[in-house]
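pasting for ref
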Amino acid sequence: MIKVQNLSKTFKIPLENRYTFKENLVELFRVAKYEKVKALDDVSFEVQEGEFLGIIGPNGSGKSTLLKVLAKILVPDRGVLEIKGKVSPFLELGVGFNMDLTARENVYQNGIILGLSRKQVDERFDKIIEFSELEKFVDTKMKNFSSGMHVRLAFSVAIQVDADILLMDEVLAVGDMHFQQKCFEVFNRYKQEKKTIILVTHDMGSVQRYCTRAIFLSNGKIIKDGNPNKVVEEYTRFAMQ
């Protein structure tokens, strides 16, 4: 369902900071100097239908960059990417929320942004609010919501989108334990439906409990790929060095 072969992605980072107007004018006539940072370095793997893949690694290891390439938000410099099936990226949940609108209004707005028709949102509205457990706040403006409430509503809308492959980047980091458990119950249902899930997370316990496979990334390279327990053990040894 997903095939990644020799994928590489490099970013150019400016070496010099320019603070004043005068410095900016001077620098206009100089060639800017950049440092090249390789976010992904010759990455290759395949993901089959129904797999729940956890991607772990330290900050800056290339995890989020990889998800953005899979979501086709970023274009790789080199390599081959083949995806069969509809992809739903859960990378920045609630990115379309308007803080001056109510939860009800944002459900419709965000649902349409994610590709649902108004009729589909109408049909699924009660399920969305029930799953988010925000019935008492449905007509409250979003600017009065906590970060956890934002995530609950955004996730509840996002799971209504029909997709074969779900890409998630730390989407549950803000939610409480009860809501996280509900989310993983949804993921288990997706596994039974043979949907593919790729989860970037720092929660090693979730990787060991729910993932069928894990990949450990460091400096843009795959260090280990395989059984979640063994991959987590390898990463733990690495992190303790």
